[in-house]
Amino acid sequence: MHNTSRPDKEQNNTLKRKILLRVVVMGGSLGLALLIAGVGAVLAAYHYAKPGLPDAATVKEIPLQVPLRVFSRDGKLIQEIGEQRRILVAYEDVPDFVVQAFLAAEDDRFFEHPGIDYQGVLRAAVKNVLSGRRAQGASTLTQQLARDYFLSRERSYVRKLKEAFLSYKIEQEFSKEEIMELFLNKMFFGQRAYGIVAASQVYFGKELDDLEIAEAATLAGVLQRPSFYNPVSGPEDAKRRRAYVLRRMRELNFINDAEYDANMAYPLQSYLHGPDIELEASYLAEMVRREVTNRFGSEVTTRGYRVITTIDSRLQAAANHSTRDGLMEYDRRHGYRGPLHQIDLATADDALIEQTLEDYRSPGQLHTGIVSEIDVEANVATIRLARGQTIELPWSGAAWAAPFVDRSRVGDAPEQVTDVLAPGDVIRVYKTLSGLYALGQIPQAQAALVALDPSDGAVVALTGGFDYSASKFNRAVQTQRQPGSSFKPFIYSAALANGFTAASIVNDAPVTIESAELEGEWKPKNSTGRFYGETRVRDGLVRSLNLVSVRMMMRMGVSAALRHLRQFGFDDDALPANLSLALGSGAASPLEMADAYAVLANGGYDVAPYFIDRIELADGEVIEIADPKRVCQECEALESAAFEPERVESLGEVTRRQDSPVGEALIEFYDPATVAPRVIPATNIWLIQDMMRDVIRRGTGRRARALGRQDLAGKTGTSNDQRDAWFGGFNPGLVAITWVGFDENEPLGRGEEGGRTALPIWVHFMRDALLGVPEGRYPQPDGLVTVRVNPATGELAGATATNFIFETFEAGTQPLPATESTPFNLYDQDEPTLDQDDVF
């Protein structure tokens, strides 16, 4: 069949060539008649197609799909969110050689023709007729732009006709430079890359200015068939297409012979690059996506919205590193769980090794590797990483790897590398700060860290787990866990508001409570299992004594405590209406705990956490800006000054305006709508701050003394059965909360508690966060007095006493001399009785 049809095809081609030749050589009246007929046909076709043509001016009104971009407050890119990767670029910012590459590949007469290249059409027609097939197209860049904006890729004469007429209209509406800019931003380059900037980043991980001519030629060559000339999926085809573009660039004198030779020899190395992320904060980025979608709808991921968050890039980097390091430290304490897999190196080729390495993701700072050999004498293992890289794993990096038995036990400590590793083991390693590699594994426990600016609630750092790629569950906001003793500062604040002082004596002794809600008989105990008898309230917090907290709650009443605790912003779910509340038996997220701790840090003001500073459109127009309530102690003074000019003048710079009388400055500055309200008295908060500084100086938070600062305050927390480990702490300018636990709410293991498990993460973070930051101050508010008291009884120490300490009290609550009739220790004589309005 094929043989009989071939002569017919050849005859047809010969006939076409003869007809073309006759047309070309014909002249005179016949040629003129054909020309007139052709013009008439074009005019008729234009009037036929005109009603269905869109207005060319609307090309600029059609929004390009540009992803949502999330930034830190100091301009670091956190995430791009959207189906299409696109970054718009202005024509003047495109290097000349990039434009020239596209001219050479697609339309060398672009700056000369009116949208339709008649010379190109004739040239293509001649070649197509001579070859007997459609060997060459003639679409200009403008025609491609018209087709991709308004038309389909349907192969028909009607579509081609519309494309030509629309191209002409576009050329009348826009300059050549504007058309080229639209083209370079619009076109699809494969691999979700739309526009030249995204293509440059996806294929080469470069900005336009950093491209080589060969790379620009590669990108220009992709457009003809993105799936075929894709340098990642079709490198050989891409290389042939690149050669064509470079040859055309030389023929058009865009490059000289030397440049042509150099770029032809330039290696074609391309693999997919993700967005040029400058800061890792994926948990926060997802919070942003949800929030802006709720505000503006799903179009936010296609309209080029820019969200500038409150995240500080330096603090976020510290949060990432401290969270991962703390989890890995916990994980090492509980033993090595063995290799991920074993392969037979004798039969494995490079392809299998590379595929095996690719099969295992490497979250965090971990890298997947295969043990290729072990040097027994040097006690060193050689590890093969991806792309043929090899590293050495010294014995010091594997010495920790006693075998895992269970969460409370490990096996015998190894003595050499061969006790831990064998050739063919698929393992994970990471690079230590010293530059050496160590054996690692993905921790099974998880952690979260939230850091706030207590002056306005801005979230400056947030991690929701070990790594977002491994688990997208955000434990900073989506988990509700028992805060344990990290909740006690709020209980003690309630106690101070209900008659206790820092020197009140409370009996740390066993107590039994009958309650149906607490499952019958409840016997709270201290974490040590011991009881310490009569204890000052301050020491009860410093040593985190459970019985002190419970007895204070029994005396002041659950109802009174709840009324006070709600002022810290806790949801009612975190405040069970029974005595177990004294031990932090409620449920709160790390973000909610950070919000409450901000009240402690800022002096008693209610600030609301927020993480979006402003939202911009693609052109930079700001459409929303945060207006949080801020702490303003001076404003509080202004309010009490009742607008008295002499009082206002004494406040100095806060109200100073040279162009306005003092009274006007006061009215303009003090806007109650922008000022965080006070929810806890300043005297109460200062006393709790002072006790929490003692927690670090001599209590359960002693490990924080390693930071060598005097402005730190905090509290450890451990829930029942060591299921949750917490540390919450602050200085006057920064609050940070850390939590560690299992998603399945399983015990962390013997000895794992807030001071050992969560506090090291907090210390690591604060060391980096406060580097170079001067020590903060906790100004003592009016209404406090400091007296000498007997540390054993809490009573006033006489002038001749040798055993005394200084204690601070709210004025009027300090112990009185023995001659005074007012008793001091109200709550230490008898077993406490419950108020009738207490709820269990």
Strand content: 5-15%
Ranges with pLDDT <50 over ≥5 residues?
Answer: 1-7, 19-49, 645-669, 820-840
- For the residues shown, what is the average pLDDT? 84
Measured between the Cα atoms of the first and last residue, the distance is 95 Å
List how many beta strands DSSP finds: 24
Query: How helical, in percent, are the residues?
Result: 25-40%
Described by strand count, sense and barrel closure, the largest sheet is:
6 strands, antiparallel
Number of helices: 24
Q: Look at the helices and sheets and give the structural class.
A: alpha+beta
Supply Rg. 37 Å
| Morphology | globular
Task: Write a structural description.
The protein contains 24 helices and 24 strands.
Short overview:
By secondary structure, the protein is an alpha+beta fold. Helix 3 (96-106) packs across helix 10.
